[in-house]
Hints:
Layout: E1 2-7, E2 12-21, E3 24-34, H1 41-59, E4 63-67, H2 75-94, E5 98-102, H3 104-112, H4 119-129, H5 139-154, H6 157-160
Parallel strand pairs: 1-4, 4-5
Antiparallel strand pairs: 1-2, 2-3
Amino acid sequence: MVILGIDPGNVRAGYGVIKREGGVFTHLGSGLLRVGREKNAGAQLVALEKDLRRIIQKYHPGAAGLEKLFASNNMKTVMGVAEARGIIHKVIFENNLRLVELAPQTVKLSVTGSGRADKKGVAKMVHLILNMTIDDLLDDTTDALAIAIAAAGELPPDIAKRG
């Protein structure tokens, strides 16, 4: 099954696409969905929606993992991430993808074995699981791949076996 992982943000969102066949994970693609490149909020959200639709059309995932929103003292950031998540939810459901929402600690636990792992530890395990050479992937992209891996583990067996 092809799984899309998304690490939402108010300026940019990371995405990672993996394929799971049994216990083997393969990296298909990853990068950034630039949320904040437009001048007004409406244009930013439209750009995010277009980028996400393009990724879904390219890879045809059957499921998507999305990191849950966590509390922050910066309300401007929280509101921007919440708006981005709204667009992401809309596109996921319009494309009939199975959605798995995960807390950051759950993703870390799934990928590293510790819910308190740092970004460096998560990145190292993502590269090992996906048999990738360690390169200069941004945290947003590595986190999105970790979300996709964790989401794969949360899917019921009958869903995970589908192409």
